[in-house]
Amino acid sequence: MTTKPPAKRSGLKAVAALAGVSVQTVSNVVNARVGEMSTETRLRVEKAMRDLNYTPNSQARGLRIQKTNTLAFLLLDPDERYLADPMTDLIISGVGAVARERGYMVLVHAAKPGDFDSGLLLPIRQNRVDGALLLLCGDAAVRRRYTEETKQLTSNLVVFEDLVDPSVNTVTAQNRVGAYDMTMHLIDKGHRRIAFLGTATPWPMIEQRFAGYQEALKKRGIAFDPGLTLFEGEWNADTGAQMAARIRARPQPPTAIIAGNDLLAIGAIAKLKAAGLRVPEDVSVIGFNDFEFAQHTDPPLTTVRVPGFEMGHRAATILIEQIDGKQSDATSEHLPVEQVIRASA
Q1: Please, what's the b/e burial string for 114-125 (b: 16 or more CB within 10 A of its CB; e: otherwise)?
Q2: Cis (ω within 30 of 0) for the bond into 254?
Q3: Which residues fall within 8 angstroms of residue 77, CB to CB, at 6 or more apart?
Q4: Angle CA(135)–CA(140)–CA(144) in degrees, nearest 5?
Q5: Do 47 and 28 touch, CB atoms closer than 8 A?
Q6: Domains located in the chain, CATH noted
Q7: Angle formed by the axes of helices 262-274 and 237-248, to 10°?
Q8: Which of 249, 248, 343 is closest to 257 using CA atoms?
């Protein structure tokens, strides 16, 4: 009996032919030179690579020539200035602190939410990293797909979201508890019409905060009023101001506002004060995250302190332990949050 020789693995020319592009275009995708390439072309090339089982560096998919000592921080964010977001900055700083201490580099790569964009996972496919941290937003089903696709590429993975998959490491904050406690704080002060403001793009932590808000209302027998919730715009003060104006124009406006983060809260306070309303005498306002500026607003902002730096620090520690073979079982960690009561509520 003769044994068939192993099938010859496809090269750049085969990928180019299947995708209907030039060899240079395939090379550009392989080497992440896709800045001026259309998304449609890149996705077509990546599909051809998958269909032909083509991987760079003549290695089988999922294997690498050597350890890179690099962690991928993969982020979905609709904002062009995603690195200027205070919470993202805190989380990346925590990751970076551990990486520097342990001799690793951090590769930050981002895409916008929406339909699944496999370009976000290029650093893993190209064997440029030893593991990945995922900070995702957008539709929950698409977020799950990113996690599943990443799992197929590497077992070294930490996600900043609560998941039902026990095989994936997760690190989050107790956002639901924080929102529940702050809603109770407002109810104890006599508020019954409490608004909740979030952004148009779904974020896992906001979903948890909104759930905690609803849970507290139910606990105290207060009917949830969809007319007291708005999810618009992005994480900035202008969005907070616009939503505060819209929700105060309702026939029965709220006497208190819980904002999804501190940036929305300071915008809401500015708009309320410009309209001649007093905070907290006329409308109480609560933020979330306790960014450094929160204590310097007028009035100082009541908020929930979220340990962003510690989340990044813990996630990077878990990931490197997994890469080094010192951790085999996945872990799910929920870091505590803290009420910070100041003058705004």
Answers
A1: eebbbbbbbbbb
A2: no
A3: 85, 88, 110, 112, 113, 137
A4: 70
A5: no
A6: 12-60 (1.10.260), 70-173+308-337 (3.40.50.2300), 175-305 (3.40.50.2300)
A7: 50
A8: 248
332-335 β-sheet, strand order: 105-111, 70-76, 131-135, 157-159, 169-173, 332-335
Instruction: Give the pLDDT confidence of 103-126 residue by residue, as tens digits.
Output: 999 999 999 998 888 889 999 998
* Cα end-to-end distance, the chain, whole Å: 82
- The whole-angstrom separation of Cα 290 and Cα 308 is 10
Distance between CA atoms of residues 202 and 189, nearest Å: 30
Q: Which residues of the chain have pLDDT under 70?
A: 1-10, 31-35, 55-65
pLDDT score, position 181: 98
CA distance 97 to 81: 22
**Distance separating alpha carbons of residues 77 and 310, to the nearest angstrom:** 21
| Contact yes or no for 274/212 (Cβ under 8 A) | no
* Cα 242 from chain centre: 24
- Indicate the Cα dihedral angle 306, 138, 38, 123, nearest 10°: 50
Segment 260-315, tens digit of pLDDT: 999 999 999 999 999 999 999 999 999 999 999 999 999 999 999 999 999 999 99
Measured between alpha carbons, how far is 210 from 196 in angstroms, rounded to an integer? 7
CB atoms within 10 A of CB 54: 20
pLDDT at 30: 76
DSSP-assigned states of every residue in 278-326: -TTTT-EEE-SB--GGGGGSSSPPBEEE--HHHHHHHHHHHHHHHHTTS
Run of H or E including 221: none
Specify the pTM: 0.81
